[in-house]
Design a protein that fits this description.
Blueprint lengths: L1 H31 L17 H8 L5 E7 L1 H6 L1 H20 L4 E7 L5 H8 L4 E3 L6 E9 L5 E4 L10 H13 L4 E7 L6 E2 L6 E2 L3 H7 L2 E5 L13 E5 L6 H12 L3 E5 L11 H4 L3 H10 L1 E3 L3 E5 L3 E8 L2 E13 L17 E4 L4 E3 L5 E8 L4 E5 L8 H6 L9 E11 L19 E9 L11 E6 L2 E6 L3 H13 L2 H4 L12 H37 L10 H75 L1
Parallel strand pairs: 1-2, 6-9, 6-10, 10-11, 11-21
Antiparallel strand pairs: 1-4, 3-4, 4-5, 7-8, 12-17, 13-19, 14-15, 15-16, 18-20, 20-21, 22-23
Length: 623
């Protein structure tokens, strides 16, 4: 009895010890291993980039991020609930990696609460709930030690691919307070001008107002000889002809590793009288070559697939025709993994050139925007008095894609191989080489108001209604480049939604059959309409006498039309049947086959255990 009690006590003690050990291991793992994760997703959506880790580990002052969320949004739209879980998980991972510098809190912004009022007060955007039952919040508010505020008004599903990018940018801006300073040089009237003929003031371009919301702008003269030391980025927009001192200042600034964005332009749509002066100069061409790219000064890109439709006066008659040099670029033309395309669904370009990699360059050449394969180069002289119809008729695509924007990074050599020029204003030792960080775009007209937005006045204030993402593209590029190396590695990534590829393929096959039969029906309708028109043209006083053959033909068409429509409905039913059958097979596999497979494994293990026990008894009897 004593021995039995002792065994029971030891067993209970062992269970208690095991439970305490399990709890202790979990607590230790939750605290000590929280920064280590295994990402098993196909797109590595939970694996943070080195740039993010660098920003978080470099925090010197505390940063607080609050996630405002209305749970009813996730209840009514489950996709938002999954997105909320991902955002919260990533924020907590950020906090772990920051070593306690980043603090994260979840604020329940339910309806009719003080938290809902606070969300509205700080500028978060409420989204209307389905059914008109009020609005819901799903946004971020971040503050630093000096109470500066950064917000993401609403974490839209469309921005899931760039969640890490948005979060890291927010943390970076809070950790590096103050607006970035942009040094801007342009021969185009971006800051406004006076019309020499009328004497009226030409307002600044709308894109400048957009820039000033985010950055401090320091305008440089077209003949500047030094970039301000405190400039975080140099922006060149149609620099045109530059002198030696200006070229050297640009050269040394870029070789020091500071970011440069260039909007070059082989043909100006904005200033027709100054087109020849905006095409560039040998010194500017040499700068581009030293950074790793070239731009043809006398040709622009024509693209059938991306050309914009314009109204053209053709011999006194208005005609709608595609104008090949004016391009409407869609996401299929973008390098979508690059963060500068956040929330950009289109870009409008006008007479853009083609960028090509320079020979023997030590830099990498990464295309960002490219034309379709149905493109070719058009001589600039054909644009001076263009005839879009003739241009389209004589256009011969050569099957090559043209690069319209690109990044150049890496070790570059100075374009001033003989060293510092005389009377150079740049101070310090001459840099013969250095790491450059350059983004080049082959069109400057895209920043002009009429090419991306409708600009008007309302109550004395400028109202800008964007038609394309041109301004956002520039702002994203500056934010990305001015962030320095800390943000250079950030890119978009996939999201957790995984498409049912088999279902999509079934739907695509059925849709292909549907479109084919629909085209046949439309063709038959056109033929019948033509036939009826011919009959009406033979009528007298509006009366039409149909022959027996005509009546029979029309009746046969109606019968055929009903047959085709019936077949279209059958295709749709077959589509639904194929998808339902696939769903049934998946359900059977999940509900029946998987449990059955596990049960078979269990029976096998039980049988094997009993067989071993029986064999042991047999050996005991034999002994």
């Amino acid at each position: 009895m004593l021995q039995t009690a002792s065994k029971s006590t030891l067993g209970i003690a062992a269970l208690v010890f095991a439970a305490m050990a399990l709890i202790g291991v979990n607590l230790w793992a939750g605290q000590g291993l929280s920064r280590y994760r295994a990402d098993m997703t196909a797109g590595s959506i939970y694996t943070l980039s080195d740039a993010t880790r660098s920003v978080l580990s470099g925090l010197d002052e505390p940063v607080t991020i609050r996630l405002f969320y209305t749970r009813e949004l996730g209840t009514q739209v489950p996709t938002y609930a999954r997105h909320h879980d991902r955002v919260l998980s990533m924020l907590r991972h950020y906090a772990d990696l920051s070593g306690g510098k980043l603090r994260v809190s979840l604020v329940s912004a339910e309806r009719f609460t003080d938290e809902e009022d606070e969300a509205s007060a700080i500028g978060l955007q409420g989204a209307p709930l389905p059914g008109g039952n009020g609005s819901a919040f799903f946004g971020l508010a971040g503050t630093n030690s000096t109470d500066e505020l950064e917000i993401i008004p609403f974490l839209a599903l469309e921005r899931q691919n760039f969640l890490e990018l948005d979060l890291t940018r927010m943390v970076f801006k809070l950790a590096n307070a103050g607006k970035k300073k942009i040094a801007l040089m342009s021969r185009l009237p971006i800051a406004g001008n006076v019309n020499p003929q009328t004497g009226q003031q030409i307002p600044p371009w709308a894109v400048l107002g957009q820039l000033r919301d985010f950055f401090d702008i320091d305008f440089l003269s077209p003949t500047f000889d030094m970039v301000p030391d405190d400039a975080d980025l140099l922006l060149l927009v149609a620099p045109g002809e530059i002198n030696e001192k200006t070229a050297y200042a640009i050269d040394q600034y870029a070789l020091a590793g500071k970011p440069v964005i260039v909007f070059a332009d082989p043909y100006s749509e904005v200033l027709p009288s100054s087109r020849d002066n905006l095409q560039g100069s040998p010194l500017f061409t040499a700068l581009l070559a030293s950074w790793g790219t070239q731009l043809e000064a006398d040709k622009v890109v024509g693209d059938i697939d991306n050309s914009r439709q314009v109204q053209f006066n053709n011999q006194g008659q208005p005609a709608i025709v595609n104008y090949l040099p004016w391009l409407a670029m869609t996401p299929t033309s973008f390098e979508r993994t690059d963060g500068i395309f956040n929330q950009i669904s289109s870009l409008l370009l006008a007479s853009a050139g083609a960028l090509t990699p320079a020979e023997d360059a030590g830099t990498s050449f990464q295309p960002l925007i490219a034309s379709s394969a149905r493109s070719a180069m058009i001589e600039v002289k054909k644009l001076r008095n263009p005839n879009p119809i003739q241009m389209l008729q004589s256009f011969l695509p050569d099957g090559q894609q043209r690069v319209l924007a690109a990044r150049m990074r890496g070790e570059a050599k100075s374009s001033f191989k003989d060293g510092r020029p005389k009377d150079a204003a740049v101070k310090g030792e001459h840099l013969a080489a250095g790491p450059v960080n350059v983004l080049a775009v082959s069109d400057a007209d895209m920043l002009f108001d009429s090419f991306w937005a409708e600009v008007g006045q309302s109550n004395g204030r400028q109202v800008v209604i964007p038609r394309a993402g041109n301004a956002n593209f520039l702002i994203n590029a500056i934010q990305d480049m001015a962030g320095g190396q800390a943000l250079a590695g950030l890119r978009g990534r996939g999201v957790e939604q995984r498409p049912f590829s088999r279902v999509a393929q079934l739907r695509a096959d059925a849709n292909a059959r549907f479109r084919q039969q629909e085209q046949l029906l439309n063709k038959r309708l056109e033929e019948t309409q033509k036939k009826l028109t011919d009959l009406l043209s033979r009528s007298k006083d509006g009366e039409v006498t149909l022959s027996e053959a005509d009546q029979k033909g029309i009746e046969e068409f109606r019968t055929e039309m009903f047959t085709v429509r019936k077949s279209l409905r059958e295709v749709q039913r077959n589509l639904r049947a194929d998808i339902d059958a696939l769903g049934t097979r998946v359900k059977v596999a999940n509900i029946a086959f998987v449990p059955l497979f596990i049960a078979l494994i269990g029976f096998y293990l039980l049988w094997r255990r009993r067989a071993r026990a029986s064999a042991s008894k047999t050996r005991g009897v034999e002994q």
